[in-house]
Specification:
Blueprint lengths: L1 H14 L16 H6 L21 H4 L10 E4 L7 E4 L2 E2 L1 H5 L4 H4 L3 E6 L8 E4 H17 L7 E5 L5 H12 L2 E4 L6 H11 L3 E5 L1 E4 L2 E4 L1 H13 L6 E5 L17 E3 H5 L12 E2 L3 E7 L7 E6 L1 H13 L8 E4 L6 H13 L3 E5 L10 H9 L3 E4 L1 H10 L13 E5 L5 H11 L5 E5 L33 E4 L14 E5 L9 E2 L3 H9 L16 E9 L5 E6 L3 E4 L2 E4 H8 L5 E11 L3 E10 L7 H14 L9 E4 L12 H8 L13 H12 L12 H4 L6
Parallel strand pairs: 4-17, 6-7, 6-8, 7-14, 8-11, 11-12, 16-17, 16-18, 18-19, 19-20, 29-30
Antiparallel strand pairs: 1-2, 3-13, 4-5, 9-10, 14-15, 15-23, 21-22, 22-24, 24-25, 26-27, 28-29
Helix pairs in contact: 6-7, 8-9, 11-12, 14-15, 19-20
The chain binds 5'-O-[(S)-ethoxy(hydroxy)phosphoryl]adenosine (WTA).
């Protein structure tokens, strides 16, 4: 029996390397006008970043920063694979993002905050004002007894107070951990516990789709959850969306909750010297989903991270201090940390921050904002592009903004959506960079260098300077470019933006990212430690990479990474549920959405009420972003003879595909029952091949 299971798994693995058929797309060239003004236009730059010049090539990135004390070693590998970049130096991220710009750009806007309600005036914050506000807040945090190395959790919406709070922490070496505002109180609470924060910083309310949401309510749940998990939160600092006025219904808890704006009064006009911190100090944690139910806190360093996002913002996003740059992401995700806050500010950019939903009150909103503020660099995700295209395909034509460059990030973009972005949004003038990377990598891995490479819709392009990808098959053999075969994309070498570790879990860091392809765990040579990114990819003959999606059990919903195991454990908090399986389903707008299969305990009658309770549980444990498209109550889960749930079979059913051969399962009959429940009696399966991430889904268990 064991042999049989083993054999079955082996065939699954080789099926995973199926050929990927894809029509080769045509190239688009950057305009001469763009090329003439670009920060990086010398193709020879890549010769300076070849592997034989590694790691010294990255000195150029460190040189873009201002150091309090120079570093001694470019890359210290003595504790491989826990890399130490620019070791021995002293630096401060806040100083690099704020103080050093004051002389030249003090009166220039660092941020322009655009509120969701159209009638609220924009709030422009100059570098001088940012400096003043960050200093007062740093004084306040210091006054509360916080010091370098302490962790503070934020659960904040997209408001200017968020980057201000981040920078105040960075000034003192306090490690910030911002939890995406759309996550539930419980999700925030478990992240508070994991990071060991004693302080939560939140905001009373924020606007979303025309409603002023009571966000303070989440703080109470978060504190309670953290408490139950054994982490006491001593203080909750509450920013007010409208200073001086409390805009939430949830009462403040005496002794614990304090209004930030009131407390700040005591620190008016105070200055705090930026601390000279070690290069390899931690700047922040960013929690992300992985294969297990427990989110992992990606820990990013001060110097390496900042150098990497500064250089890539300058060269890839092509940001100059004179540009008006708008990244329409949420700072609660890594994109916002790297490419709204740290990268752009280190380059003295003027960065637009928008509070709300892109299509509120209509699909012309982003283009009106761009026109009004003179935005010339625009950055967003495929989901937003698809949504704006569907609701207002002609809207961009009505507005007179002009973009020189545009970015897409977070999900694969289909060539059709890419072309709309190019033709309509970019008016055939703006270059597009399709930037592929992830929370763990700090900054871009693969992208075109916009003035150097041609664009190819649907492909992120070649690798960024100094990034040397390799695609391995399951056995560790290299898959060559142009072979048409997909595999696991890895990076051969470390780079400054790479995470330092998973907070509090060194073993998980080594196992997750290096376990599969490292052959010598004792090695101190970086060549032995290819970093496994977690995506499937294929490399075309021209060297361009096309990303096929996650190879682990992570679903990318509208560019938000959700762990299926986390959703499944949320389902199991409903007492009637015996087993749960979550699968990704193709969705026209969001890319992928989760569908849920649950089996209920014996003696319980299936009902809509149970399905509703499952949805409610998911919203409470994770947040509305994880809301499933459908919940199916099934008589039993399809299982292998060793008792594993075959999520792959459920994914095929949900995506209206043929389930393939299921005769080796322990209960093949149940597959047909479930198929009828989902697809109806007639066979209505679609012929076209499943996208690779779904085809492979559920194979890595
Ligand atoms: C996916 C977001 C295709 C990928 C920066 C990755 C992409 C996951 C792209 C990381 C892209 C990100 N093309 N897929 N340009 N960018 N992804 O951690 O599957 O939120 O593993 O970081 O998003 O998501 P994360």
């Amino acid at each position: 029996m064991a042999k049989e299971v083993e054999k079955q798994e082996l065939t699954e693995v080789s099926e995973a390397q199926i050929a990927v058929h894809w029509k080769e797309e045509e190239y688009y060239q950057p305009s001469e006008k763009f090329k003439a003004q670009a920060n990086m236009r010398d193709p020879r730059i890549f010769e300076q970043f070849t592997l034989d010049k590694f790691p010294d090539c990255f000195k150029a990135y460190a040189d873009m920063l201002t150091w309090f004390e120079p570093y001694r070693t470019v890359l210290d590998t003595s504790d491989a694979p826990f890399w130490k970049w620019f070791a021995g130096g002293k630096i401060n991220a806040c100083y690099n993002c704020v103080d050093r710009h004051l002389a030249k750009y003090g009166n220039k806007a660092a941020f322009i905050f655009v509120a969701e309600p159209d009638k609220e005036p924009d709030v422009s914050i100059t570098y001088q004002e940012l400096y003043d506000r960050v200093n007062e807040l740093a004084a306040l945090l210091r006054g509360l007894g916080l010091k370098a190395g302490d962790r503070v959790t934020f659960h904040m919406p997209m408001v200017a107070e968020l980057p201000i709070t981040m920078l105040a922490c960075a000034r003192l070496g306090i490690i910030h951990s911002q939890v995406f505002g759309g996550f539930s109180g419980q999700a925030c609470g478990s992240r508070i516990q994991d990071s060991g924060s004693r302080l939560l910083i939140t905001m009373d309310s924020y606007w979303r789709n025309g409603t002023l949401v009571d966000h303070k309510a989440n703080a109470d749940i978060a504190v309670q959850t953290a408490n139950e998990l054994g982490q006491a939160v001593e203080k909750v600092l509450v920013w007010q969306r409208y200073p001086g006025k409390y805009s939430a219904k949830t009462p403040m808890v005496p002794g614990r909750d304090v209004f930030m704006n009131e407390l700040l009064g005591q620190y008016k006009g105070q200055n705090v010297e930026p601390l000279a911190l070690p290069s390899d100090g931690a700047l922040f944690l960013m929690y992300s989903s992985g294969t297990t139910g427990k989110p992992k806190g990606a820990q990013h360093s001060i110097a390496g991270y900042l150098a990497y996002v500064t250089a890539t913002s300058k060269w890839v996003l092509d940001i100059d201090p004179e540009d008006i740059y708008w990244c329409m992401a949420d700072i609660g995700w890594i994109t916002g940390h790297s490419y709204i806050v740290y990268g752009p500010l280190a380059n003295a950019a003027t960065s637009v921050m928008y509070e709300g939903v892109p299509t509120f009150p209509d699909a012309g909103r982003p283009w009106r904002i761009a026109e009004r503020l003179g935005v010339n660099i625009f950055h967003t995700a495929p989901t937003a592009i698809r949504m704006l295209r569907k609701l207002g395909p002609q809207e961009p034509r009505k507005y007179k903004y002009r973009f020189k460059s545009m970015t897409t990030v977070g999900e694969p973009i289909e060539p059709e959506a890419w072309r709309w972005y190019y033709d309509e949004v970019g008016k055939r003038e703006a270059v597009i960079t399709d930037t592929w990377w992830m929370t763990e990598t700090g900054g871009f891995l693969c992208t075109t260098m916009p003035a150097i490479h041609a664009m190819k819709p649907g492909s992120c392009g070649p690798a960024a300077p100094g990034i040397h990808p390799v695609i391995y098959d399951e056995t560790g053999a290299e898959i060559l470019k142009g072979s048409g075969k997909a595999g696991n994309i890895c990076i051969r070498n470390p780079w400054p933006g790479i995470m330092q570790t998973i907070w509090g879990d060194r073993d998980r860091y080594v196992k997750t990212y290096f376990g599969k392809y490292n052959k010598n765990p004792k090695s101190k040579d970086w060549r032995d430690w290819p970093f496994m990114c977690g995506d499937g990819a294929v490399q075309a003959a021209d060297g361009y990479y096309r990303i096929l999606g996650r190879i682990d059990d992570v679903i990318n919903v509208a560019g938000h990474r959700l762990g299926t195991k986390e959703i499944e454990s949320a389902c199991l908090t409903v007492p009637e549920i015996a087993e749960a399986a979550v699968v990704p389903v193709q969705d026209e707008l969001k890319g992928r959405v989760p569908e849920v299969y649950v089996a209920i305990k014996p003696g319980v009658q299936p009902s809509q009420a149970i399905a509703d309770r499952v949805i409610k549980a998911i919203e409470e444990v994770i947040g509305k972003i994880a809301r499933p498209k459908r919940v199916y109550i099934v008589p039993d889960m399809p299982k292998t003879r060793s008792g594993k749930i075959m999520r792959r079979v459920l994914a095929a059913i949900s995506n209206r595909r043929d389930v393939g051969d299921v005769t080796t399962l322990a209960n093949p009959d149940v597959v047909e029952q479930i198929r009828i429940m989902v697809q109806g009696k007639d066979i209505t399966t679609r012929r076209e091949e499943l996208p690779e991430d779904i085809a492979k889904f559920g194979q890595v268990e």
